[in-house]
Design goal:
single chain; alpha/beta; Udp-n-acetylmuramoylalanyl-d-glutamate--2,6- Diaminopimelate Ligase, Chain: A, domain 1; Alpha-Beta Plaits; 3 domains; five-stranded mixed beta sheet; 18 helices; 10 strands
Amino acid sequence: MPVQRPLTVRDTLLSPHFAQALVAAGSSGLDREIRWVHILEISEADELLHGGEMILTTGVGFRGEAAERRRFLATLIRRGAACLCIELGPYMACLPEEWIVQAEEAGFPLIVFSGKVRYVDITHDLHRLILGLQSGSRRQLPHARERPDKERIGWLLQAKEYGPGNEAWRSDPLLQPFERLPCRTVLLELGAGTGRRHDTAALLPGAAGCITEAAYLLKRELERTGSPCLADGDGARITLVIADASAAETCRRLLENALLRLAEWQPRAAGAGEALAGRQGAAESRRQAQLALDLAGAAGRSKSPCLFYEELGVLQLLPALNDGSRLEDFVDRHLGPLLLADRLKGSELLLTLKVYLDAEGNKQEAARRLYIVRQSLYYRLERIGELLGSFWHMPERRLAVQVALRAYMLLHPGSLREPEPQTPDARHAGEASSSASRSAASRKSKSSSVLDSGGASVSTLL
């Protein structure tokens, strides 16, 4: 379905996706232009619309009073949406009569699907058309030296000039969604010796082995979900800019699903900024993503390699304190004895403390993540208590210690990494070598039991 002019509602009815669709009302508006496609399942849509959207819904969010349904459709019409497509089914068995009246009066097309429809396929195909791509065509992977989105990302995130003049971006259809929708920046770090593959040259079997190609494949997977995306790979880092207003958890699922398609590798760490509007917002999202990446690099996150800025909480304040000495002084004040002990004796007390706190005071979980037996952990925790003082686990001190740990990770990227999974033989050897520590811990079992009860109470503080 090649389109050489703006895409209209009438054009989409020629698509195979709409073969079983029926225009139930508003046929006089079939020449409305479609600028984008949204799946919308909430009734409060005012702030989400910019005009020209095709809205796809199952009706799950519109089962309230008739007045609420009228307000919803009135909002779509007032905000200049192109049309509304409804899948009839368990959430909406038939088209509300008030919608038919409103749509006819406004010349607003209501399109009905009588059975299940894959909205993700509709958004994917129509977005390709809107962005000037030919339906059904298959782009080849870019050459290893080509970086198709480098200039676009530079314009969007770094205020660099794009093309001949400040308004040149308006002629680039791939940039237009990033004007209308909030943009979330994601930074993924590969790096040698990290992840499942230990060299970026072997990143993609059967391809040129270039990180640019990995970036392109991630972009393609994200765009399959209907999320416009810019992607560029440079060195060991991939930069993604996603035009989408989804919540962090929704974006996380999209990213993880896209990464699963590249089963040969996983990023060592990833950081994501908030979804913010405009070029200034996109640049701020890039700064947030960098902070999240710096902290995710050593966070030991078991569920996902990606840390979102929204998850940082009080740690969002750390960059403002990093003025050259203040943050270092804070770290030294709260962690100095542990840093000195680790430096002089080659111990891992700082890492042990971080893992223990990350495990919310669960000693069994902390020992598992450190690949040591619990008696060895008890001994280390007792030593930590001796160095930090008996009150280190009280609420205010514990919070200061946690912030100091993250500040240390920010000042020393790549530090405090949790150990890699061990083979059974290696684990057995490690347990044998720690027998002295276990003996020392057993001789001080009374102190250990006191710390154990204290640790149990600590796990409930935050």
